[in-house]
Structures are given as structure tokens and as C-alpha cells.
Amino acid sequence: MKAFYEQRTRILLLGMTVLSTCTLMPTAFAQDIERNKNPSPRAPHARPGVNSSNTHVASSHPKNSVVPSPKSEDISVTGSNGVRTAEKRLRKVPGNFTVISSKEVEKGRSATLEDTLAFQPGIFAQATSGSTGNKISIRGSGAGVFYGGYSLGMKYLVDGLTVSGVGGFQEDRLNNTGYQRTEVLYGANAFDYAATALGGGINFVTHTGVSAPGFMARFEAGSYGTLKEQVSQGGTFSNKKGDYYVTVARTNRQGFQSYTAMHRTDVVANLGYRFTDKLSARLIFKWDEGFGHYGGLLTLAQLRKSPSINPNDWGGRPTRSTMLGFKTNYIFDDDSRLEYGITWNDYPLFNGTNTQQFNLWRSTDINNSIKYNRNDRLLGRRIESNFILSDVHMVSGDSRYYTSSVRSTQSNSEDWTLHQRVKYGGSHDLVFAAGNNFNIFNRLWLTSGFSVIWIDRNIRVVDRLIPNSALQSREHYNNVFITPRVGLRYEINPDVDVFANFSRLIDPPVTWNYHDVKGGSPYNDTGTVGPLKAQRANSAEIGIRGHVGIFDGNLTLYRSWVKDELLSVVVTRATSTTAEITTTSNASPTIHQGIEAGLSTKLFNLHQYGALSFRQALTVNDFYYRHDPLLGQNKLPSIPTWQYQAELQYNNPLGFYANFDFRSSSSYYVDYANTLKAPRYGIFGLKLGYEAKSKIWSTFLDFRNLGNKHYATAAYTAYNLNHTDSAMFYPGDGFSVFGGVTVHLSDLGKHL
């Protein structure tokens, strides 16, 4: 365990010998005869999730011309046009997506994924205790998961490489250091990433030496002892055939609640090389280490009167994760593309420092993927085909449950007593996906495909302090599912699409879901494992998106019919001497349906006085049991019925900007019996900043919760609270101010 802490200074500059680059996606849309006669530029709309100007990426190739093969995504895509190019690539999806520019996020505080995903319709993203332990849910994914642990119900990727495993994805890894953009594909729209989960997929795209050339230093400080320091260096070498990027960030926070101090160090490195116009490769490295004291849950009375108290002034969690990824691309003579990717992920977790019941998790995954894309013509019409084989494999993993006569620390392990050890090695998710987009008519595209998912979970209790043959010690779940997908997308004009799709979704249980589904506790030697089935859903979606005049937005309606939904509940709450016990079960049929609406409006744009715009995001959720024998048609807990966020943005041509925002949420139940609700709230914020015309430096002030509102940022989940005010709520930060300065010397080390 000593090595658990000694990694901090080892990695500052890890010499990454790398190889370069993602290839440009082929031109996404065929030109119809009408546009061939009048070859005006056509471009995708600018998504409301991106606070860039509504400039469009034009395709200048006539219908019958030969489109030259792109040489490198690094050279052509990941610079200033990276976000717009990603939007153009994703526009072929007949469903909802958003692309978020990190540059826009960094105009204010950039501390957690809540900052990144704010103002995006359909996404619930809240930081608990102000830390990187984020609760993320899309379309009700992971609705019943406890917070401060793992994020479930969606697939996480870095540069298109899978980083979430069969044990889930630790919330502490959900930070935004080193990313140039974040791509969110809702539900089945993440099909091209071999994602089959209800929530879809989130792909974090790291900076390269092209998107972030030169030297950058950023400093943030603010309320609650917040301090973040970051430096980065990027550039190209070997006559621009290769590029490199490395960043190191250090974050500290004392916390809004008492005893919630945290610190973390992040290192991200990305190096690539283009061997020829056809062959390129890239290596990505991520490492983080930290320690956090997580805030205690409050009652409604405590939330209203004294939200900064922490009734749990004990416990903490050291965290560390390492990710090493490699991908290589080859472009064939017919412009088809082959990509191979592999990631190695190691993410141990120590739960319950300074308590007398605690557990240690060790997980190592190796994830492989092969992707093949090609363009052809069928009956004279354009057809784009893609194939993916993805294997997410836990090569080594276990959980160990300990007790101690005194509160645990890293230095008193001789006092620990091992009660139970559970192994998960060999568990995997193997997905084969095949799909295509077919240009039926000039502006009508048919998307079709299917996935074959092989789920294997191998759970074994291998050590017990007190052997008991009457307790179940092994559970093996092995199943294969076939999930079809079909969708239509019609281009009303070059800037507006309507779309619809129908898909089937599969969420397999993660490894630790199988713990104690029949009751019992590993700490008193009664822990068991038990059966669970994969969650299945049929999902339909319809919507419109685009850019018309001063308006830029999207509207999506969806409905999912879910069977065997995986829902968790806290059986025993943690104390300083007893650990938390949770259990997961397959629910009776449920419905997830809702509305996702985003709209950005240019109110005016005067060269002399600047530009004023107004963006809005509305999320409406309706998640409920269909006809449960005990709960009837009760609402599923812990996700708001609606969220509304709005921001008025002013940009002055001299470089000044000011944003005034409003964020609000409905009340929502926090127990399955629907007897206790989290309070509704509305909070205001103000962001002021300046960016020098030279782009050498910028600064900002970010004011949060101007009215010092007492509110719950997220809540726990219980079965039946019997209308009793209970400690279920994480408090949101009070009035706070954050400021920052960024210095960017873009020519320093730009070309080596």
C-alpha cells in the first residue's frame, strides 16, 4: 500500500515514444443534384452546447469530384476547427448529441465535470462535496447508484478508446484536465463507439501539439481554499509529422462543508507520429493521484439552517488511476480506414480511511478495439459502413473487506483483519457492431445496424475469515444479446435536420453489483454473492436540430421501455465504526421518457458594441414504474423532474466578456416509496473576463450562487423513509468567488 502514495513525483515527464493520429472521417454527406448545379458551401449547424460563433464548416467538393484523403487528424482537425469538425462528423447520427469546447468552459472555473456539462439539455451533472466525485446521469442512467463511488449507465472513452470497465468508472476520474473537447452521444446514438448503455457514451478528446501549441500556465483560486495550478507544453516535430503535448495540474480545496478537504495531481501526455499519408498512430497517457474527505449527508432541516456542517467528520479516500492507450490508423487506397486501439487501465480504490470497517478494491483492465470504416455506392447512392469489435476485459480485480480495532490508516495495516475477498478477473464485455448510413434520396438518410453483446461475469468469494458452506460463494453470469438499430435523418436544408430512431439497449451489471443481493455483510462474515440479469430497454427517439437565422438549437423527445432495470439502495448507512452496505436488484418494468431542448439566440451583433446572445437548456424527465406490485407507478428517485438553465452572454470586440446565468431544478423524490423530496432551487451566477487580442493572456472572475441559496446538489437513495426528514442530501456550495489567469506563449516550443 505504500506505493499507493509514492507515485506523485515519479511521472512528471514520462517520455512517451509515440506515434500519431486519428484520421479524418470521410466527407459525411453526398451532394445532391440541386447543390451540384449551385455548389454553395454546406455545413453542419453549430450545436447549442458549443459557445462558438455560428460559423459553419464548408464542404467545397462537387458531387462527382474525387475527395483527397486527409493526411492526419492532428494536422487537419484538432486545431481551431476541431469542435466544428467533430460536429460535422456526428451530424450523420439520427439522434441527439452535443460537442463541448473546453476553451469555452475555461472562461470560468474549470474544476469538475459539472462545469463542463453545465447548460447541456438532458444531462444531470452535479459535483458532490464540490469534488471530482460527480453524479452523472443521462436519460436516467445510473439513477439508483449511490454517489461518491462509481458512475454507471454509460460508456466513457478517451480519444475514442474505452476507459470504463466491467467494474464501472470511478467518479474521481471525472475531471477535465488536458481535454480540448467533450463529445456526448445520448443513448443508442453512441452506437459507433460500441456503447450499448441507456445513457450512451461520453468521449473526452485530449489536447495534441496542434490544438494546444506552445507553453501554457493557468492559475485558479477562490472560495473554500480552492487552488489549481496547471502548466502544459505542446508542439510538433520532425517537419510536423509528429506532435506532442503534456500537462501537469495540481488541485487543492478545503471544502464548503467542514472536513471535506481534497487534493489531486493530474498528468496527461499525448504524442503522435504520421509515418506516411496512410499510416499514423498515437499514444495517450493519463495518471492521477489524490485524497478526498467526502462530505456527510444532511437532513432538510440541516440543509436549510447550516449546510456547511459535516456530521461525518471521519473517513476519506485515497485515489489513483493510470491509463495508457495506443491507437493506430491506416487509410487504404479506396479511402476506407482501419483503426486498432488498446488501453491499459489500473484503478485501485481504498474506501474508508480512518474508519474501523473499510474495503480495498484493485482493478486492472485491458480494452481492445478494432474499427473499420468505408464508403461505397449502392444503386448510385452513397453508403457509409462501419464495423467495430470491442473487448472490455478485467484481467485482474478483487475487493477486500477489513475490520480494525482502531481507525485505519496506511501505517497500521498489521491491525487489519481480512473478512472476505471477492475476485472478478476474467469478466468481460465483448461487442461486435455493424452499421451503415445509406443515402436513400438526395436528403434522406437511412441508418441501420446491429450489435452482438457477449456479457461474462465471473464472481468468486475466495477468502472468508469464517468458512461457511451454506453461503453462496460463486456467481457466473454468461449471456449473449443481439440489439438492432434503425434510424432516419432528413435534411430539410443544409442547416436543419429532422431525425428519428428506434434501438435496443443493454446494461450489464458491473462486478460488484452481485454482492449481497440476498442480504448479509462481508464485515460480519455473512457476505454472499447472488444472481442478477442484464438491464434491457427498447428506446425510441424523435427530434429536430439546426440553425435558422438568429436561432440555433435542438429539440428531442425520447421514450425507453426498460426491463430488469438495475436499481440500488443503501441498506445500512456508514458510521465511523461500520461500513455502508448497499444492494442491487432487477426492478419490475419501468419507463424512462423525457424532453431535451436547447436554444441559443443571437440578440444582436454590432461590430462597435459587441455581441449579445442568450442560451437556454431544458430537461424534462419522467421515470417511473409501470405497474410494480408494491410501488405501483411510483417515480424513480434521485433525478429531478425538470432542470432549466439559461445564460445571457455578452462579448465585446476589445476582448471583454460578461455572462449572467441562472440554474434551477425541480424537487424530486429520494426514496422508492415516494415519501420524501429534495427541495427545488434556483441559483444565479456571474462571469466576467478579458482575453487579450494577442491571445497571450486572459483572466476571469466567476461568481457562483450570488444569493447564497441553501440547496441540495444531489441526494442519496433509500427504499422507504416514511415521510421522515432523513440525512439524504449533499449541500451545494454557498456564495463563492473564483478567479484565474492564463498565460499562453503559443510559439514557445511550437516546432522542434
Topology of this structure?
Elements: H1 33-37, H2 73-76, H3 82-90, E1 97-101, H4 102-105, H5 113-117, E2 123-127, E3 134-138, E4 150-151, E5 155-158, E6 161-162, E7 169-170, E8 179-186, E9 200-206, E10 214-222, E11 226-237, E12 242-253, E13 262-274, E14 279-292, H6 300-305, E15 317-331, E16 337-346, E17 349-351, E18 357-378, E19 381-404, E20 416-423, E21 428-439, E22 444-464, E23 474-493, E24 496-507, E25 535-548, E26 551-563, E27 566-572, E28 581-586, E29 590-606, E30 610-625, E31 642-651, E32 656-665, E33 668-669, E34 677-678, E35 681-691, E36 697-704, E37 712-715, E38 729-731, E39 736-745
Parallel strand pairs: 5-9
Antiparallel strand pairs: 1-8, 2-3, 4-7, 5-6, 8-9, 10-11, 10-39, 11-12, 12-13, 13-14, 14-15, 15-16, 16-18, 17-18, 18-19, 19-20, 19-21, 20-22, 21-22, 22-23, 23-24, 24-25, 25-26, 26-29, 27-28, 29-30, 30-31, 31-32, 32-35, 33-34, 35-36, 36-39, 37-38
Describe this protein's structure.
The protein is mainly β and 752 residues long. It is built from 6 helices and 39 strands. The chain has a 24-stranded antiparallel sheet that branches. The protein has a 5-stranded mixed sheet with strand order 1-8-9-5-6. A hairpin with a 4-residue loop joins strand 21 and strand 22. The longest helix has 9 residues. The radius of gyration is 25 Å and the shape is globular. The N terminus is likely disordered.
